[in-house]
Amino acid sequence: MSGILTIVGLGSGDVDQLTVGIFRRLQQASRLYVRTKDHPALDSVTAEFITFDDVYETKESFPEVYAEIADRLLNIAAEAQDSEEIIYAVPGHPMVAERTVQILREQGEARGITVRILGGESFLDETFTRLGFDPIEGFQLLDAAQLNAQLLQPQMHTVIGQVYDTFTASDVKLSLMELYPDDYEVQVCHYLGVEGKEVIASVPVYELDHIQDYGNLSLIYVPRTDDEMIRNRTFARLHEIVETLRSPGGCPWDREQTHQSLRQNFIEETYEVLETIDDDDPEHMQEELGDVLLQIMLHAQIEEETGTFNVYDVIEGLNRKLIFRHPHVFGDKHAGDAQAALQNWDAMKAEEKRLKGIDTAAVSVLDGVPRDLPALLSAYKIQKKAAKVGFNWEDVEGALGKLDEELAELKEAIREGHDSLDQQLELGDLLFCAVNIARFIKADPEQALALVNRKFKQRFQYIEQSLQAQGTAIDQASLEEMDRLWDEAKSKNL
């Protein structure tokens, strides 16, 4: 047999907010425990009580604190006489932001201990009253310790609880600043509704960790806003805009688009991102990545209109794939380096196919290379797949020898006047072999050619600019003069 564990709320601060029944129970308790003595209502309680403030000093994290408090209480109740009442008092309402209560409810039943909850005024009651907003307009309660920008919804009133100290306030500040302007006005509240102690201070977000006296009865209030600048930083707003563009009252051009009509746009936008990467241009990269994201949103919106899937299905599928293919991060496997991580990825990719019922024995090793990749990149990927099963030169010397052989065959095809298709195929063999060499020296052939293209462009433009400075049109210059200027550009490391 065991005692009965009764959990009561101390309200949001002032003792006058307690019900008569709960106050009487506290006064008459023979065995009273409180999570913390730092609560104004306890000043009026004459019964002796034991606090768990010591647990905060010995544990390194709040989850450990809550687990320890719950474990102690359950042991106390288990050792109590049959039907003896153990009272545990917590700030506010027991069911609002009280993790110890959740643990007690979950574990108490499993251990055969009766757990009763009598309630009490929540700090939220005082929050709505003192800050003057109606939660029906849209409201969210967030835990400062678990806060991140993804949880924030600017069109909802947001109350952030569990702001125990300046360090926690600093973490809240950093999360808010990912979405809100640095000078956005928020309110820091201490002891709401407690006469003589209440503090409500309006401060810009960047000053949140400059405020003193954070404690058990502190919170931060972020007022709702329809400010377009803030809403435009949310994914929900992007989805809303694309949906509007495709709606009957939206943009005529966007409404007419199909997957096929957008196909070339997708390719072009992707290459524009690659250009910003090659130019090491973060400012334009941000813009071009946005253009690629728009293409994804448009394709997903087209399918959402037909009821097949939406962008959230896309995100869910990607999240599941990333978690499944990274067992060394989200599971129990190990990967000491990038190569081991790649092996895990390939193994889980094969497992995905098995789970989908795909007969891997009937699948070609070369499957999975998109047919519309640029030919150079496609050759690179095909060769990598073939090399994984041993179809490969032992070293780069074998590939270099093959390059000489292919060059000789191309020369022969040209000198002997072979037909155009034959010459084209010999040229393709030479390029394919060059890609093989790129793979051996761990170079991306597409990037290598892009670098040479850029180098050629810079040197040729040097020739143009030099001739223009001399008053000579490039189509009037001799080859010898252009060669001389080319060597000059080369000497300047252009």
Search tags:
494 residues, alpha/beta, five-stranded parallel β-sheet, 10% strand
Structure characterization notes:
With 494 residues, the chain is α/β, with parallel strands linked by helices. The chain is 53% helix and 10% strand. The chain is built from 19 helices and 10 strands. The chain has helices at residues 20-28, 53-58, 62-79, 99-110, 123-131, 166-177, 228-231, 235-245, 252-256, 259-278, 282-306, 311-324, 327-330, 338-355, 375-388, 396-415, 420-440, 445-469, 479-491, and strands spanning 4-9, 32-34, 49-51, 85-90, 114-119, 139-143, 157-161, 185-190, 199-204, 218-222. The strands form 2 sheets. It has a 5-stranded parallel beta sheet with strand order 3-2-4-1-5, with helices on both faces. It has a 5-stranded mixed beta sheet with strand order 6-7-10-8-9, with no helix packed on it. α10 (259-278) runs antiparallel to α11 and α15 (375-388) crosses α17 (420-440). The radius of gyration is 34 Å and the shape is elongated.
Q: What share of residues are in beta strands?
A: 5-15%
Quaternary organization: single chain
Give the spatial strand order of the biggest sheet: 3-2-4-1-5
- Runs in which pLDDT lies below 50 for 5 or more consecutive residues are none
Q: How many whole angstroms does the radius of gyration measure? A: 34 Å
Order of secondary-structure elements: EHEEHHEHEHEEHEEEHHHHHHHHHHHHH
Which structural class should the secondary elements be placed in?
Answer: alpha/beta
Query: What is the arithmetic mean of pLDDT?
Result: 90
Distance between the termini: 87 Å
Count of DSSP H/I helices: 19
Helix content: 40-55%
Gross morphology:
elongated
| Number of distinct beta strands | 10
Reported for the largest beta sheet, the result is: 5 strands, parallel
